[in-house]
Amino acid sequence: MLNEKDFPPLPSQAAKRTRIKQRLPAAVPARNDGIAASINDLPDELWLEILDYLPALDLEDFQLQTLSNLSRVNRRIHSLVSERLYAGFNSFFCASYPFLRTIISNQQLAGSVQSMRIAYGHGVHAERSKYKPSVLDKRIVKNGLKGKDIPGWKSWAVDCNNDEAEQEILYATILMHTPNITKLTVDDGEVPYVIPKWLDLVRRIGSGSRFGHVHKFLHLKSLQIETSSLKIRQLSPIFKLPALKNVTLIGLIELARTEEEQSGVLQRLLPIRTSAVEELSLKEALIQDDILEVLLRSFRVLRRFELTYSHDRYTDVDSGPFSSPLNSLKIHRLELQVLHLSNNFFGSISSISPGMVKCLHQFEELYDLQVPLDTLVDTGRPHSTISVDSLPPALTSLTIFVKAGRQLLFLDALKHLASQSRECIPLLRELRIELFSVYENSSKYDWEGFRQIWAKTGVHLEIRFESDEYDERDGVGILGLRADTDTESESESDEESLYSN
């Protein structure tokens, strides 16, 4: 039998009992012990634990409707669920107009929104039936924009309340009303104006001029954009946001083919050492050197940099000068901690000199390095080795990408690295080798001898193949790469229509 002394009430239960005692007269009889407990008897602390297992916007474990149903049980559970229900907006799941109407009519819910993921362009979400706003809906949105006192708010309200409203203008209006947003993910597409409305909003805020009563994105720390046709000159306002620390750009192409795309023009938009961004990831990107240098020099402190390139995404890869980004990164050599370069960036787009990474010893704080083998070894010369003195002294994790063919002949250079690692890179704890070749090309190599050499150094060795198969034939731990590809009734009414389209 449970002893209440051993299991004292949780804070929420104690507070609830105090309120009940204050409200009820002494003559009210105690509840019979035989009555079963109901959902209302669960303490707030347990509810919060349960809600952790109900992610709202998870593709694999979609629980948005479950949370919406729970929010309609009673006022108490509604108060616990509502913040999680409105913590994020994802255009893949959520209808834009009802969401906008709800957060305009309830500022507390608007303050709960911390992340947004939006997609727009031709055909995006075209399969959905259009939400038809009521007269009350339109009045709420109109008054919300009027309260923001932005220039042209009437035209903006008309555009939002149009039955054929562009999704992208609704996203921008949601952004206006979510002052605590910390993360924004954008899948860019074609729009019928020069730049997307959300980006125009950021541009106006970043310019420093007053833009009505719209917040200044003081909490936005992470931004990811999969670009369609956007260029850095158009994206330059995002780098002026005061709280932004992490930026990921996917599919960015910068070849400076027009006068307005030249680095001199961009330098006026991104002055040196003016951006607060500390982590930059450029995925599937193609950027010529002078443009990249202007971008990298605009950061006050850069701690993490990633650059990957996908040959399949582009056809004219010989359109500009490309070389090592390390020349541009030298300005951050005293603070850069993480550097990831694509397995096939080098040598795929130009005939740059192999074994180019010779100045990494200047990067005193660099502890995580991912590079192709031919950036460390001159694969054009037989018996080339890695210059250990050129590696960063603080290195703890090293990942090397190895292609099929001739590069397999230079794996002995990594044995030479093992013999000197204790003296030159004493902090190294982990070495990963990722082989982009089929098993038949690499199975003849003496992996057992390779493993034994590194085992003597105390460094954890992990070897991966591009295929999905797990190799158990030699027992040396060779793994296959996985292919990852305000009243209660009013609130209830809002939530029911919010996700119904």
From TrEMBL:
Transmembrane segments: none annotated. Residues 486-501 have a biased composition (Acidic residues). It holds the Pfam family F-box-like. Residues 36-92 form the F-box domain. Residues 481-501 are annotated as: Disordered. It comes from the Eukaryota. SUPFAM superfamilies: F-box domain. This is F-box domain-containing protein.
